[in-house]
Write a structure and sequence with these properties.
29% helix, 11 helices, 10-stranded mixed beta sheet, 335 residues, globular, single chain
């Protein structure tokens, strides 16, 4: 493990980190983290694949089974933030958001493990009023039924945090939404999608929505203009989710993340190591993880992406593999 690249949160509680970072604008690039590594560097991690449908009982059973295969950090008595993906208002036959049934099942599963509070949150990229999406996709009713709080991370109070990655050298400070920094456990819950620039949009790419729209704008274009892959790596260096649950029951293929079409994949992909989880999801989608820049750059720094270094639990990749349609310019990603 490259401990030089561990985020300060490994040593400090998130709330302590929030206090230390508040008002800080100085750069804090961590030594040895700026280089691109192509080897897994001895890392080993697990990723769980569970078959699922959007039936409430099946989803809850699948998520609890996944949590049993790869346990999350201890959530007993803690605040758990489910960072979902609500990129934009719904579009016909375009499943672009984390399905509300998956969100509800995950919330229940973490409550059963003793979470004191479960918060659902996102900072949508395209629609400035997150509550319009919450209402339009049917999430509002589930929030009421389960007495869950939703937080719009684009407009919540923010805090300045040093960019610990340093790949975006002209951006020494990132502005995170305070609810993210105040959470004890963060769970990244993206939709399994292709992405016309990133290649795939999964648990690591989902970190974009943790940053403040008030500070960084909509749809956070400054990160795309600088270098989308560098941005992902900087975000993961600075503050990474503790666990991932990827909604691949119905994914999005083609011109993602919002213009593609539905594809039945029938799975959830779960785990505590983000590169391993994303690499596994990519293989299910028929995408070579090493061909996705930010995944290749994360190898050996945050975890493994090589199939030999990832212990697959639950279903084997071969049993659920469902190649997603890619854009013509992305032919090199297929494998």
């Amino acid at each position: 493990m490259n401990r030089a690249c561990r985020h300060p949160d490994a040593l400090l509680k998130r709330r302590d980190f929030l206090k230390a970072a508040a008002g800080t604008a100085a750069a804090a690039a961590m030594p040895g983290c700026a280089g691109v590594l192509y080897s897994d560097g001895g890392w080993r991690a697990g990723a769980a694949i569970l078959r699922a449908t959007y039936d409430e009982s099946i989803l809850l059973e699948a998520i609890e089974a996944g949590l049993g295969l790869i346990e999350p950090p201890d959530v007993a008595g803690k605040r758990v933030l489910l960072k979902v993906n609500l990129v934009d208002l719904p579009r016909d036959n375009r499943p672009i958001v984390t399905d509300p049934a998956v969100i509800a099942a995950a919330a229940e599963a973490f409550r059963r493990r003793g979470a004191a509070e479960v918060v659902v949150a996102d900072g949508p990229a395209l629609q400035r009023d997150a509550w319009e999406i919450v209402e339009a996709v049917g999430l509002a009713g589930l929030l009421d039924e389960q007495h869950l709080t939703f937080v719009d991370l684009s407009t919540a109070d923010l805090a300045a945090v040093p960019n610990a990655g340093g790949l975006m050298g002209d951006l020494p400070t990132l502005y995170y939404s305070r609810p993210v920094l105040e959470a004890d456990v963060i769970v990244s819950m993206p939709k399994m999608k292709t992405h016309h620039w990133a290649g795939v949009s999964l648990a690591m790419k989902n970190h974009f929505g943790m940053l403040s729209g008030l500070a960084h704008g909509w749809p956070r274009n400054q990160f795309h203009v600088r270098n989308l892959h560098h941005a992902v790596i900087d975000f993961i260096h600075t503050l990474r989710a503790d666990y991932a649950i990827i909604d691949g029951v119905v994914g999005l293929e083609g011109d993602g993340p919002v213009r593609g079409t539905a594809v039945q994949a029938g799975v959830l992909v779960m785990g505590s190591n983000l590169p391993a989880v994303d690499a596994t999801a990519a293989r299910i989608m028929g995408v070579r993880p090493e061909a996705v820049d930010y995944l290749r750059m994360s190898a050996g720094v945050f975890g493994p992406i090589g199939e030999a270094n990832i212990t697959q639990l639950g279903e084997p990749i071969a049993a659920v593999r469902r190649p997603f349609r890619l854009m013509p310019h992305q032919w090199a990603l297929a494998g």
